[in-house]
Known about the structure:
Order of helices and strands of chain A: EHHEHEHEHHEEEHEHEHEHHH
Number of domains of chain A: 1
Strand order of the largest sheet of chain A: 1-2-3-4-5-8-9-10
CATH architecture of chain A: Alpha-Beta Barrel
Number of helices of chain A: 12
Number of strands of chain A: 10
CATH topology of chain A: TIM Barrel
Largest interface: A-B, 34 and 34 residues
CATH superfamily of chain A: Aldolase class I
Structural class of chain A: alpha/beta
Shape of chain A: globular
Largest sheet of chain A: 8 strands, parallel, barrel
Distance between the termini of chain A: 6 Å
Oligomer: homodimer
Amino acid sequence: MNELVKVYEVGPRDGLQNESAILTVEQKGRLIDGLVEAGLGHIEATSFVHPKAVPQLADADEVMAGAIGRHAGYAAAGPEFVGLVFNERGYDRAWAAGCRSLAFGAAVSETFSLRNTHNTPQAALATARTLIERAQRDGARTRFYVMTAWICPFEGPISPHKTLALVREIADWGVDEIAVADTIGHADPLSVGHLIDLIARRIPLDRLAVHLHDTQALGLANAAMALQAGIRIFDTSVGGLGGCPFAPGAAGNLATEDLVFMAYKMGLGTGVDFRRLWGVVYELEALIGRPIGGRIRQWWESSQDHEPRIDFN
Amino acid sequence: MNELVKVYEVGPRDGLQNESAILTVEQKGRLIDGLVEAGLGHIEATSFVHPKAVPQLADADEVMAGAIGRHAGYAAAGPEFVGLVFNERGYDRAWAAGCRSLAFGAAVSETFSLRNTHNTPQAALATARTLIERAQRDGARTRFYVMTAWICPFEGPISPHKTLALVREIADWGVDEIAVADTIGHADPLSVGHLIDLIARRIPLDRLAVHLHDTQALGLANAAMALQAGIRIFDTSVGGLGGCPFAPGAAGNLATEDLVFMAYKMGLGTGVDFRRLWGVVYELEALIGRPIGGRIRQWWESSQDHEPRIDFN
């Protein structure tokens, strides 16, 4: 297997938290298991936030414990189930559920931070640093979201140097993976390439992921430019689910099927079985109750008659 | 006006030739005039092929003469109406209609050439060369399509060196503009960037256009990579109309509204008035009788409530 691109699946967390349909613990379990069977080895399974803030993920403890329970010892090197955590209480819950891969985050934009977390970026960072130090002592794997890395829905364009400064600070903490996030999906390919180029001069790109949304139909173009700039880790959401309930104008994440297809076209393997992935999309669509699926859907379905079978691995 | 990207509109030709609905001369006139009013200064208005081969364009003579008649002296530097021509008969018709901008073409792929034009690439090239020499004597502007520049529906991937050789030959003839065409829309961003890089080492990029189709949802990603590689001329089709009736699996051209939007996001002006362009899309959609419009449509329409007015010029 030629896994040159790491796909970090955020559908069960970033996707489901923005859907009005609330899935049961069992349905989420089936979704996660389907993703694992399709070859996705890194899955952000849930977020340990207050149930009142995100009722869609109120079952975080059960979902995480279930996923880990069913897949413990699945294989020597996988799969990894990540829990998003913003405070001590969330950390305690994640740890109790057996989660040993934790994601944290803070925004570059002060206004976004204040409206999203009712915290200044400085306060959010201080909290995150405490949590990360705890995770490092605990031997957990750590990931950090640099939110509004390009554009803030309230402040507009963010200076790349401001984003770079935050990325460097987080890198200095020894975080395992840093995801620069186009939180509302308003970034453009030139800005994406420019920021990655800037960051690449300071920190090794093998620790860097990009987290893209497809709000303005530029998700794949932005991903192509990030790939060209050296990024090999992409956050995507099965079916293109997602968004951000606190960010006006945000639409779905870049669809997993779109990124996997584009990487395949470029000769870069992802380890994902494309047909199985579509099976997950179709099952999820029935649960969600509205049409989902990436932009490649039309071609993929219309090509089944006349295109040869493609092995995406 | 900050027109850093030249948009070459192929909707009236490449778009309409693949639609089952056949527009009247008057409807085509309205379409062309609407495009001109939206700021599109280079429009491939029709193709002077045999009416039996492409019945949708059987009215080429009237459409071209009408467009030129209505817009002669419109402005010192525009608009340009281009006619596609594949033989002496077509050239005679175009010239008689007043057309002074002519497009020609040949395929890199031998199989595609044989099936599409019932000619070998060598024979197609010899014909094109004769026509181009005539156009140059006549003082006409010349454009050349290098078809199947990346992928042939019958042969599969085309060696970039084979495409490069054809591009260099055409460039030696002194053709004003060369469009490298992803005829069926199966190219990927890495291949697009690679070919442009190769060509850029041999001929100045200001003569080079890319002609992309959006079959596999990679149109914008491919355009972003071409732009990054230095391309500043893009063939697009209003509403994403188009395809190729002789190429199995080809879907619509890259939509004009998608490219214009992405260029705007990158800070590159196109001279196109985005709102007027959507007016043309909606009117065309009513005529065509099926939903059209680029991938940016969903965001554009949903954003009208809460986004500020954007000046795209």
